[in-house]
């Protein structure tokens, strides 16, 4: 059995190792843009990053998921959607999901996003935003199953084409 757990900054290096392994093993490198460790650390230091790990019964970590609570920071994807300031404050960015090959097939990206969504709803966030490469059928299918809607396609992350998806979780 695999559990999704919310962890603190003390496990960020461990999570980042998963990001690196997944990044290095991508068949289509454009589908996954690994942020530098310092980016994750910045959000954790600001207490605006939420980190989840997927852990099996032997405490092996097989996946990570990172949420950013950007507020009015320029990285907020809500700016790309021309959201007004009050709505920007209610946005959470479903930022990075990385699953090791040996843990694939357990729907961990879906489960981690669902776990985070429950936490974010309790925290009062209203809009969940994420980006997906237009040809990444796996991630696209995952966000569609969860009720996200494609809002627009544009270049992000230094020129990589991305669809921006949004889900409203509180009316």
Automatic annotation (TrEMBL):
Residues of the N-acetyltransferase domain: 2-171
Protein name per UniProt: N-acetyltransferase domain-containing protein
The organism's place on the tree of life at top rank: Bacteria
Single GO term (MF): acyltransferase activity, transferring groups other than amino-acyl groups
One Pfam family in the UniProt entry: Acetyltransf_1
InterPro entries hit by this protein: Acyl_CoA_acyltransferase (IPR016181), GNAT_dom (IPR000182)
SUPFAM superfamilies: Acyl-CoA N-acyltransferases (Nat) (SSF55729)
């Amino acid at each position: 059995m695999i559990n999704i757990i919310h962890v603190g900054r003390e496990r960020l290096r461990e999570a980042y190792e998963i990001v690196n392994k997944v990044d290095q093993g991508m068949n289509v490198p454009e589908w996954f843009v690994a942020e530098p460790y310092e980016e994750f650390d910045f959000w954790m230091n600001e207490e605006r990053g939420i980190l989840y790990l997927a852990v099996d019964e032997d405490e092996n970590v097989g996946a990570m998921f990172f949420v950013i609570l950007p507020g009015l920071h320029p990285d907020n994807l809500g700016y790309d959607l021309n959201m007004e300031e009050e709505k920007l404050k209610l946005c959470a960015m479903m930022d990075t999901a990385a699953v090791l090959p040996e843990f694939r097939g357990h729907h961990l990206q879906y489960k981690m996003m669902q776990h985070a969504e429950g936490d974010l709803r309790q925290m009062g966030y209203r809009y969940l935003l994420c980006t997906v490469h237009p040809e990444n059928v796996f991630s696209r299918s995952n966000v569609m199953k969860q009720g996200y809607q494609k809002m627009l396609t544009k270049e992000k992350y230094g020129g990589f084409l991305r669809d921006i998806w949004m889900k409203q979780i509180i009316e």
